[in-house]
Amino acid sequence: MHSAEVKRLDAHQLTLAGELTFRTVVTVRNMLETELRGAIGHQIISLADVGPADSSALSLWLCLQRWARCQQVELQVVDVPDDIKALGRLVGMDRRWAHAGLEGACLKL
Questions:
Q1: Who has the most CB within 10 Å: 5, 39, 75, 109?
Q2: Is residue 35 a contact partner of residue 8, using CB atoms and an 8 Å limit?
Q3: Which helix (H) or strand (E) element contains residue 6?
Q4: d(CA 52, CA 12)
Q5: Mean pLDDT, the chain, as a whole number?
Q6: Is the pLDDT of residue 109 over 50?
Q7: 57-79 in b/e burial notation, b at 16+ Cβ within 10 A?
Q8: Has residue 58 got a pLDDT over 80?
Q9: Sheet of 74-78, strand order
Q10: Contact call for residues 23 and 57 (beta carbons, < 8 A)
Q11: Domains of the chain in sequence order
Q12: Is the pLDDT assigned to residue 103 strictly greater than 50?
């Protein structure tokens, strides 16, 4: 079974649980879009319960960062699983990978 879930914990915190792979990334993106629409200020997304994950997790995060910058929303990811950190290192992103490559046009999520 390939599933993922996004829950809003409070006005500034979300949690993502389940699989974050090419099979689920579009669904996850839609769920995050719904939860972040209208958000203001600092938003924290916990990945503590994510697994398994693949490189689509990095792509999703970069897309979310670009969108958030355009919306004047600051996103912070916490509890990043080791497999996602390893993928970030593999593609040359340092520990601040969430802020890499954000130049460019604002895109609607």
A1: 75
A2: yes
A3: strand 4-10
A4: 25
A5: 85
A6: no
A7: bbebbbebbbbbbebebebebee
A8: yes
A9: 4-10, 13-20, 42-53, 74-78
A10: no
A11: 4-95 (3.30.750.24)
A12: no
